[in-house]
């Protein structure tokens, strides 16, 4: 009989839990490849990690968790894989929506959902609507999202507002710009985690990560679990955030 190895116990400071954690969920394909399974199986397995982390982050009192689920560049992949990924929201919400609702989790999305098949759009919008009054963790899916695209679109919006006389150039501040990003009403990102041992942003949250702490974990996304989350938060709590100043 197999016993799950006892998880390492990280002593977390309850007063210093990151408010917003952003995940680059990476390594699904490699997870599947290692098992000689199709890449899609890795994506399927990866959705279980989302449930695990959402429930755990909610318990820890994290306010928002953003998940990079599909980038604007991921359209370069094989059409069959893209098609499969677009079916995952249905699978995910069929399995876990009720549980997330019971746990007061609020579902959101950012990105070009209009580029997804109609059914995918409806399933995500439905989950967002039904959970909109929930006051627990905000679980925000970055779906068909690109950081450069977001900055460019917000810039265009600012130009339109300026042209229409809604704002003057002086009123166009960093704060104002930030409020008009897709993440405008979420707390600033404190911690960014990328799984699978890749050390890059791949066009994720280019503005939002300016002062976030970065943690890179070797674990492939389907294997990423509560212990990994606790480890990431423990690393975060060990960092000294200065925001350009000098600590006294
Ligand atoms: C992350 O896993 C999921 C998406 C990008 C949609 P990958 O599919 O990138 O997995 P690897 O990097 O090929 O292992
Ligand atoms: C980033 O992962 C995108 C998501 C996790 C959705 P990728 O696997 O697409 O990134 P690259 O291609 O390795 O940079
Ligand atoms: Mg990848």
Could you explain the architecture of this structure?
With 248 residues, this protein is α/β, with parallel strands linked by helices. Strand 3 (106-110), helix 4 (118-130) and strand 4 (138-145) form a beta-alpha-beta unit. Helix content is 41%, strand content 14%. It is globular, with a radius of gyration of 19 Å. The protein has a six-stranded parallel sheet, with helices on both faces. It has one domain (17-146, 188-237): Undecaprenyl pyrophosphate synthetase (3-Layer(aba) Sandwich). It contains seven helices and six strands, in the order βααβαβαβααββα. Helix 3 packs parallel to helix 4. Residues 24-26, 68-71, 74, 198, 200, 202 line the site of one 3-methylbut-3-enyl trihydrogen diphosphate.
Element-by-element helix/strand order: EHHEHEHEHHEEH
Q: Could you tell me the mean pLDDT?
A: 97
Give the termini distance in whole angstroms. 54 Å
CATH architecture classification name:
3-Layer(aba) Sandwich
Which segments are poorly predicted (pLDDT under 50) over 5 or more consecutive residues? none
Strand order of the largest sheet: 3-4-2-1-5-6
Report the CATH topology name: Undecaprenyl pyrophosphate synthetase
Individual helix count: 7
Q: How can the largest sheet be summarized?
A: 6 strands, parallel
Cα radius of gyration in angstroms: 19 Å
**Count of spatially separate domains:** 1
Structural class: alpha/beta
- What are the distinct ligands in this entry? 3-methylbut-3-enyl trihydrogen diphosphate, magnesium ion
The coarse overall form would be globular
CATH superfamily: Decaprenyl diphosphate synthase-like
Helix content: 40-55%
Strand content: 5-15%
């Amino acid at each position: 009989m197999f016993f799950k190895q006892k998880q390492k116990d990280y002593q977390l400071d309850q007063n210093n839990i990151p408010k917003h954690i952003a995940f680059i969920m990476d390594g699904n394909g490699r997870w599947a490849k290692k098992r000689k399974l199709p890449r899609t199986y890795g994506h399927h397995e990866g959705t279980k990690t989302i449930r695990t982390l959402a429930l755990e982050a909610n318990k820890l009192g994290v306010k928002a968790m953003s998940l990079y689920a599909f980038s604007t560049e991921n359209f370069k992949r094989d059409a069959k894989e893209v098609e499969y990924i677009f079916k995952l929201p249905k699978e995910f919400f069929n399995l876990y929506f009720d549980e997330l609702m019971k746990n007061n989790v609020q579902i959101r999305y950012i990105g070009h959902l209009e580029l997804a098949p109609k059914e995918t759009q409806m399933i995500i919008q439905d989950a967002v609507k039904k959970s909109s009054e929930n006051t627990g963790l905000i679980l925000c899916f970055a779906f068909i999202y690109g950081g450069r695209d977001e900055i460019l679109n917000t810039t265009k919006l600012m130009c339109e507002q300026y042209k229409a006389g809604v704002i003057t150039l002086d009123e166009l501040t960093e704060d104002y710009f930030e409020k008009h990003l897709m993440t405008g009403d979420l707390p600033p990102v404190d911690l960014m985690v990328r799984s699978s041992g890749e050390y890059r942003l791949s066009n994720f949250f280019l503005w939002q990560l300016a002062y976030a702490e970065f943690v890179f974990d070797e674990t492939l996304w389907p294997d990423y679990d509560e212990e990994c989350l606790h480890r990431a938060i423990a690393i975060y709590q060990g960092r000294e955030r200065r925001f350009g100043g000098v600590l006294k």
